[in-house]
Amino acid sequence: MTPTGPDMLLSLRGLSKSFGTFKANDAVDLDIRPGEIHALLGENGAGKSTFVKMLYGALQPDAGEIAWRGTPVAIPSPAHARQLGIGMVFQHFSLFEALTVAENVAVALPGDIPLRKIASDLEQVSRAYGLPLRANARVYDLSVGQRQRIEIVRCLLQEPDLVIMDEPTSVLTPQECEDLFGVLRKLASEGKAILYISHKLEEVRALCERATILRHGKVVGSCIPRDETAGSIARMMVGADIHEVRHARAEIDRSAPLLSVNGLSLPPRDTFATALKRISFDLYPGEIAGIAGIAGNGQSELFDVLSGEETVARADTVSLLGEPVGTRDIAARRAMGAVFISEERLGHATVPTLALSENVFLTRHSVNPGLRRGQLLDRAAARRELDRITETMDVRKSAPDPAAQSLSGGNLQKFIVGREVLDAPKVIVVNQPTWGVDAGSAASIRQTLIDLAAGGAAVLVISQDLDELFEIADTLAAIAEGHLSPFVPASQTDRNAIGLKMSGVAGEEHRAS
Amino acid sequence: MIRIELHRRSSPSATLRLLSPVIGLALAVITGAIMFSLMGKNPATALYIYFIEPLTEAWSVHELLIKAAPLILMGAGLSICYLSNNWNIGAEGQFIMGALAGSIFPVLFTDFQNPLVLPLMIGFAMVGGALWAGIPALLKARFNTNEILVSLMLVYIAERVLDYLVRGPWRNPGGMNFPESVRFHDFARMPEILPADGRANIGIIIAIVVAVALWFMLSRTLKGFEIRVLGTSPRAGRFAGFSSRGMVFFSFLIAGACAGLAGIIEVAGASAQLRPIISPGYGFTAIIVAFLGRLNPLGAILAGFILALTYLGGEAAQISLQVSDKVSRVFQGALLLYILAADTLVHYRIRIAARPRADKPDVPRQTSEKGA
User: What is the pTM of this model?
Assistant: First the structure.
């Protein structure tokens, strides 16, 4: 490691943080120069978030030194961090939907600045960086990309020297990503440093000058991303080769669909929900169909209608195995051999506080007759089922039967997928199968889906991750503002075409024609 | 500057979940001691009279059983409601309506005297309590009204109905114009357990059997699983195919039936007739029973006895110490307050900090799932 020099903007030495016996960060060293875009890479659970929280004053390190422009400092709070010149753009936005852009910026700024001045400052900054924003627009009218601009502008208004960005592209279309990269390069050219947290390797190779890689809370290496391949960086992150997903594509028999949606329109549930507009498609045995889209464009609404959590007025709007089921509930659809894997692992797919074996009951209580004797729950059978899931899916857990909330994202997702697929389902509907899941678990989950399709099941994958969709899907469509584009074979489309459909541009033309 | 900070625990403490009622009880006893000494009584003597003396004589233990029965029944029923996230505050009203529905036979059909009467009274009482509880359930499920307000207001309506009946149509014609119903005949009375040394009746046995049955349902059956899932995570419950709306009815009807049963045990047991006031606030005290018992019907049995003791102690203190029996209300209130406060410790640990004040983070914490 290079010694701490006055030319370093930020130097960290031996930063450590433990939670109980778990070392989230173990003697982490890092240097950031003015004007560089520095990537912090690591799988989920590698300790990136803990590290960043210490830098931003939201957590206090147990040991280690932070030097800002060569002077040792303590950062007891986010306010101190901002005073020093450290700004942060969060992965999850903290905006009030009912307020205007200017009001949202005002609540985050210290002191008593008149709203009019904030509005003019913010429009000026947003123009200067090519982040167009109207100060008096209401947030609920804005797209996710525009909302992120508010967060960025809010951060820039405080004139930081270091901007921390936590997975900023996870909610953006490919086109929006390019725009963001332009802004970040401009910031760097003005001498501002950027700490860019991500696990998207291609993106880091395109954008960042240096990268530091974390694994199990330790720095395991640093590199110049341009000189590496995505594969070589991934090896450093995971510590092993990620196995390639095998795809044995057979001819799909398109005579009898297993899942059909026919003219599905649904008004929004509430002010912030998305309406579904005339959605129709068929899904055949052996097929993996992918639906791309930016979060909040109707994916969860569509999922709820497919699963039966939300029933519709006409039974033939949704058909399973050729039988109309639009008015039947989720239990009835599960009984027909469909399974549903929802986006939210905690609080939807599982009850966070209940043990895993009890979470087995959650979706299988009326499908797997072995789990009950009459009305009585057979807990021993549930534990046996849990063991079967653990073994088949390689779920790593700290205790034999821990609460769902104590598992890491990847392991919990493997448990959930295992719970649903071990009884050979005929139709699988899955929303964001690998969202926030480490690379190793993600690969095994994708392989599971491919194997299910190879066995004759129909799989519908709703995902924001285009790489994932191109890796596993046979046909692809995009959802934008509740409107689903027609499915096309994955081999006949590309990222750009899907990206355009995701932004709704293609959808507009479609509607106009 | 020294400050007390609350830090969120990574997982809720199981030890403190059990310890919290003990801490609450201890603090309530200390508060009681301070209160007695402020009133010029010797706190040690006062606490002895309040908590120990009632347990030293047989007749008084019988009284304890009589008071514990309705508290256990309603505490166990309310536990089901609260576990499923339905806030029934109106057990007092359901108690009264149950008592009234069950009293139809001994009051209006005085000639109908045979062994069938008591089972019929119990059945009517349970249905009566359940129907009264069904009103806030229906309004919540249908119109999304606030069940806390509706169930509470129905208590006052039930009290007026009782008052009207015993002063009007149901008044004992031979009762010298006292606002009372006729005394219940022997077939309409709860059989006493040990008539030789006290008036305790089979109500306490019924209460314990019901509490154990509810515990069994909660911990062993699919319905119990449904209650716990819908209470902690309604969306996961919907994903499991459970109906939140159905659970509103189920939990309210169970709690209402328990309260109605408690009502008929009270009027067909100790008092043997209807009067304008038939409960010293059992329905409200049962809320404390439910929380002291950790929303576990078995816990409600123990908690029911403890709260019954506070009633007896209050009466004893009134006689021996010449203090108002409102002392028991103060004590019960302090107990609930302390338990709820001590429950904070289940999720947070206390840290005494001397370092400079850190500003509140102005950003939401990231979800632990995404975090490192």
Answer: 0.78
